[in-house]
Amino acid sequence: MNSTNWSQSVGGVCIRDGKVLLGRHTYGSGNGKLIIPGGYVKFGETPEEALIREFKEETGVTVHPEKLVGIRFNTKDWYAVFKVSYVEGEARSDGDENSEVIWMNVDEALKDETVPGLTKTMIERTLTGGGFDIMPYQTTKPGSHLYSC
């Protein structure tokens, strides 16, 4: 049985020292493009857990989700993008889903033609400080998170 929930995916914007972490994709509509790291959520996994796992698998970098900066919905799925903070690790390609992982100057990334519009929009949103912060609330369901502004 496949544990991947193909209708839920996440991405993260990690900015450190004026540079954003991007990976050059090797497949699908993102082939050859520099995009923010991320991927699909597995069943039984929270979006935050999926984001941490995907970053580590794809880039070698450990991150911590801080804020929800955007979510894209359509008729078949959703894609949530988080501002993440760098924790540790050296950026490297996974040799599969990406051909390179780089720290690119934010201003260059926003002008680069190989960086898609959605990635640029999420970088800009992260830079402006917009988004939803995680908020405490009473719940009995483990893994539940509330984001609010």
List the helices and strands and how they pair.
Blueprint: E1 4-16, E2 19-25, E3 34-35, E4 38-42, H1 47-59, E5 62-73, E6 78-88, E7 98-105, H2 106-111, H3 117-128, E8 132-135, E9 146-148
Parallel strand pairs: 1-6
Antiparallel strand pairs: 1-2, 1-4, 2-3, 2-7, 5-6, 5-8, 8-9
Q: Which superfamily, in CATH terms, is the homologous superfamily?
A: Nucleoside Triphosphate Pyrophosphohydrolase
Strand content: 35-45%
Question: Helix tally?
Answer: 3
| Structural class estimated from helices and strands | alpha+beta
Parts with pLDDT < 50 across at least 5 consecutive residues: none
The gyration radius over C-alpha positions equals 15 Å
